[in-house]
Design brief:
about 290 residues; alpha+beta; Thrombin, subunit H; 3 helices; about 25% strand; MreC
Length: about 290
Amino acid sequence: MLLALVASIMVFFLDTRLDYFKPVRSLLSTAVYPVQAAASLPTDLSEWVSDFFQDRKQLREKITVMEANNMLQNIRLQKLQSLERENMRLKELLGSSFRLQERVQVAELLTIDLDPFSQQVVIDKGENYGVYIGQPVLDATGVMGQVTETSAVSSRVVLLTDPSHSIPVQINRNGLRAVVTGRGLGEFLQMDFLPHNADIREGDLLVTSGLGGRFPVGYPVGKVVSVEFPQGKPFADIKVEPAAKLSTSREVMLVLPGEKIQTERTTTKPAEESSSTTEVDSGDDN
C-alpha cells in the first residue's frame, strides 16, 4: 500500500509538473471517445428531435399569425381605400352644393332595381327627412332623376334613363327648349320633337328649363353626342349623354323646397344700413 501510494504521488507529480504522461492521456482519451459518444447518443438524439419539432411548431404558429395579420392589413387597406373614395365623392357633392342656389340634403343609395325595363333606385331618406314625391335628385355632376315613392325611412327614385321618364330642358347655348326622354339601360337619352331646322349641335350642354315646376332652372342634364336628320321623318334624331354618373354615383343630393339661399344677404345688409345712415346724417346736416 505504501509503495502504491508513493508510486501514485510520483505519477501525479510527473503528470502535473512535467506533462510526462500527456501523450498517453491523449491516446486514452481518443480511444475512449467513441464509447462516450455512444453513451450520450440517446440523450442528444432525443433533444434534437424535440428541438426540431418544437421549431417547426413555432414556425407554423408564426406563419399563421403573419398570414392573419397580412389578411387583416389587406382588409384595413381596402376599407381605407373605400373611405378615401367615399370622402372624395362627398367632397364633390359638397363642392357641387355650394355652386347650387337651392338648399340640398345628402342621401345614399340602398338598392338598385335589377329590372332592365325599369331604371330605379332606393335611397336611405324618406318622409321623416322631408322627402316628397317629385323631389329632384342630383349627383355631383348633374340631374339623376326624381322621387316617385316615399316611405318613412326610404324613397324610390326614377332615373333619367327610365323609358317612362321625361324632363324639360333647354340648350345652354341658345335657350332652345325641348324634352329629353329615357331609352333604357345602357342607352343614350333621346331629345324629342325638334324639327330639322332646329339650332342644335353636337357638344351642346342641356340644362333644366324649369318648365313643369319639378326641376329648378339651370341644372345640367346631359350633352348632345349625335344629331341626325333622317329622311321622311319630321323630327331630328338627337342622342344625349347624361351628365350624372348614373351607374357609379352612391351619394346623391335631394333638392329641398323653399327659397333659394341668399348668399349676398350678409353683404347687402351692411350696404343698406350704411346708405340709410348716410341719408339720416345728410338730413341732420340740412
